[in-house]
Amino acid sequence: SQQGEEDPQALSIQEGENATMNCSYKTSINNLQWYRQNSGRGLVHLILIRSNEREKHSGRLRVTLDTSKKSSSLLITASRAADTASYFCATVPNSGGSNYKLTFGKGTLLTVNP
Amino acid sequence: NAGVMQNPRHLVRRRGQEARLRCSPVKGHSHVYWYRQLPEEGLKFMVYLQKENIIDESGMPKERFSAEFPKEGPSILRIQQVVRGDSAAYFCASSPGSYGNTIYFGEGSWLTVV
Q1: Residue B9 has what pLDDT?
Q2: Which of A2, A63, A109, B38 is geometrically suited to a Cys-Cys bond with A10, CB 3.0 to 4.6 A?
Q3: Minimal CA–CA distance to B33: which of B88, B111, B102?
Q4: First to last CA, chain B
Q5: What single string gives the DSSP state of each residue in A13-59?
Q6: A108-113 and A85-93: which strand pairing?
């Protein structure tokens, strides 16, 4: 599997429920970033979590990072129909000369039904 | 509060023509990146530039593709003699530095080759 791989590939929930998306990666990272993309639009940056951090919050978003398992999760609480989008995690490596290069997974398509 | 500005948003080209995509980074950002997104895929790194310099073009096809970020003016991604396989969304991103920084994306330029 590729670096920054999300699961599930698709998630459908009802408004008000929580949504959890997971991301796994392979190599040592400097940081991991979560983005949202609405259909046909650009990427909106959600949260950056550094390798020495375990958890970060931003509004209804909670991101965790477990470097021992090389995994991260994005939790969206009290979801709204407007949260419907694709969510991507992207990693920045910690080594070599490529510590600027984001490696994306294929994303999780979240559908929040009203 | 201007973010990363890309134009055109949508571009249609016939096979063999040239496509020229422009990107103005966030004001004050001197690091620019181009990524490509194929349908149903995550973004793939193409090239990283600083003012007047190409730092890393390892993700860019060797032929027909070129990028520049001149001292004055926007960054340009140029695709010569386009083929159908070039149809994709091309995203520009910028950051204030190269290491450990949040990377901000534009809305993308959606190229269709007919």
Answers
A1: 95
A2: A109
A3: B102
A4: 36
A5: EETTS-EEEEEE--S-EEEEEEEEE-TTS-EEEEEEEETT--EEEET
A6: antiparallel
Residues of A in contact with B4 (CB under 8 A): 42
Residue B17 phi/psi, 5-degree rounding, is -80, 175
Amino acid in position A28:
S
- CA-CA-CA-CA torsion for B92, B93, B97, B99, nearest 10 degrees? -110
By Cβ distance, the residue of A31, A41, A100 closest to B48 is A100
Distance of residue B85 Cα from the nearest chain A Cα, in angstroms: 19
**DSSP string of A63-95?**
EEEETTTTEEEEEE-S--GGG-EEEEEEEEESS
Give the span between the Cα atoms of A81 and A79, in whole angstroms.
Answer: 7
pLDDT in tens, B26-59: 998 989 999 999 887 789 999 999 988 999 999 9
8 A C-beta contact, residue A98 and residue B57: no
**CB of B110 less than 8 A from some CB of A:** yes
- Token pair in block for residue A16: 């008000």
